[in-house]
Specification:
3 helices; 12 strands; mainly beta; outer membrane lipoprotein receptor (LolB), chain A
Length: 210
C-alpha cells in the first residue's frame, strides 16, 4: 500500500461536515432539519473515521483510520493511526503535518476564508461564494459542489442517519471517490486545548509549505 499524504482530505471533511451546518435553506426540509439539530450550539466534536479511496478503475487504492477532533471556529486535529501514524493539526495560524515514522514535519499557513470555506462556520454569509448545495431526493443526503473553477473535488455527498452525519463521499478531478465513514461522533465533548497545539518533536525535520 502506498503512503497516504493527507494534505487535502481533512480539510474536505471538516468543510463538508461543519460548513454545511451553516448552509442556507437549499436542501430539502428533512435534511435541513437534521443539519439544524446537529449544528445547534456546536462548539466541539470528536469521533473516529475510516477513510477509503477507490480509483477510477474501481479498485481500493488507499485505506486508513484514526481519530478526529474539532473546536470552533477553525481548529482541528486529524490523527491517522493506521496504516501509518500521522497527525494533521490546525491551530488557527498554521497547518501542521507530522509523519511519525519519517520524523518529518511540514508547516504551512492555515488557509484563510478566501482559500478554504471552513471559516464560513463563523461567517456563514460566505457560504454561497464557495458551494452550490442541493438535495437528491433522499431525505438523508445532500450534494454540494464547489463553485471555484480550480477546486480539488467535483462534488461531495453528506449522509445522515438517525440525525447524525455518518459518511462523506468526495468525487475528485481524477475520477476517484473517497469515502469517509464517521464513527461514534460526540457533540460538544470537553477537549484538551493541547489537542490543537503542535510542537515539532526533537530531532524531526521541519519543512515549510507543501
Amino acid at each position: 500500500m502506498r503512503r497516504i499524504f493527507p494534505s487535502m482530505i481533512p480539510w474536505l471533511l471538516v468543510v463538508g461536515l461543519v460548513v454545511l451546518l451553516a448552509a442556507p435553506l437549499a436542501a430539502q426540509d428533512s435534511a435541513r432539519a437534521e443539519l439544524d439539530r446537529f449544528a445547534a450550539d456546536l462548539e466541539t466534536l470528536s469521533g473516529q473515521f475510516a477513510q477509503t479511496t477507490i480509483d477510477a478503475d474501481g479498485f481500493v487504492s488507499e485505506a486508513s483510520s484514526g481519530d478526529l477532533y474539532f473546536s470552533a471556529p477553525d481548529r482541528f486535529r486529524w490523527r491517522y493511526l493506521e496504516p501509518f501514524p500521522q497527525d494533521l493539526v490546525a491551530d488557527g495560524e498554521f497547518l501542521w503535518h507530522y509523519d511519525e515514522s519519517l520524523e518529518q514535519v511540514t508547516q504551512q499557513d492555515q488557509p484563510s476564508a478566501s482559500d478554504s470555506p471552513l471559516l464560513v462556520l463563523t461567517q456563514p454569509e460566505l457560504l454561497d461564494t464557495f458551494y452550490s448545495i442541493s438535495a437528491t431526493g433522499d431525505p438523508d443526503e445532500i450534494v454540494f459542489r464547489p463553485m471555484a473553477d480550480e477546486a480539488e473535488f467535483e462534488q461531495a455527498r453528506l449522509f445522515f442517519a438517525d440525525g447524525l452525519p455518518v459518511a462523506l463521499e468526495f468525487n475528485d478531478n481524477f475520477g476517484q471517490i473517497t469515502r469517509i465513514d464517521l464513527i461514534d461522533l460526540v457533540r460538544n465533548p470537553e477537549l484538551d486545548p493541547d489537542l490543537f497545539r503542535f510542537e515539532a518533536p526533537p530531532g524531526a525535520d521541519v519543512l515549510q509549505g507543501y
